[in-house]
Sequence to fold (192 residues):
Amino acid sequence: MEGFVGMTSDEALWVARAKAGDQAAFAALFTRYERRIYAFVYRMMGNPDDAADLTQDTFLKAYRALDKTDEDLNVNAWLHRIASNACMDVLRRRQRIRWLPWEGAKHDAPSSRLEDDPEDSLIGDETQRMVQRILLQMSPRNRQAMVLREYEGLSCEDIGEIMGVSRSAVKSMLFRGREEFRKLYHTHESAS
Fold:
């Protein structure tokens, strides 16, 4: 799910039509991005109710702000920035940040295939819990940059647009975030 450089021709048409008041065109944008934004918000908030509410809030804010956007709008980055700001506002109000472990984008029930190895599942669950503990100890900005890059697969340019910083600042945050994660991982491993 690599970040987009710009809009597809469909998106450009949908944005233009939505700006003119065509609700079906905005509904097409919603359909394309709703699951992606929900998954991102779910990862940031760790709660399906919060994710549903903030996803709805994101699209409401996007709809209201659509007429103020540029013609070369990067819809993916724009929606992620609105969602990211909404999440950070709620998290700041709560004075705590919770993150989920890095797992797949789908939030479906675990598979029950016969070839699944229970030992591998146990090791995977343990690894996810360890990742979550480490992420909880990281600085919020470094975590945000890492989730956008490693989980969402966005480019440094898109992350910069979402977080309101330059591409080089994103690269620095990712470097610091990886270093912070590595140090915390080694500390965790030493304590085990």
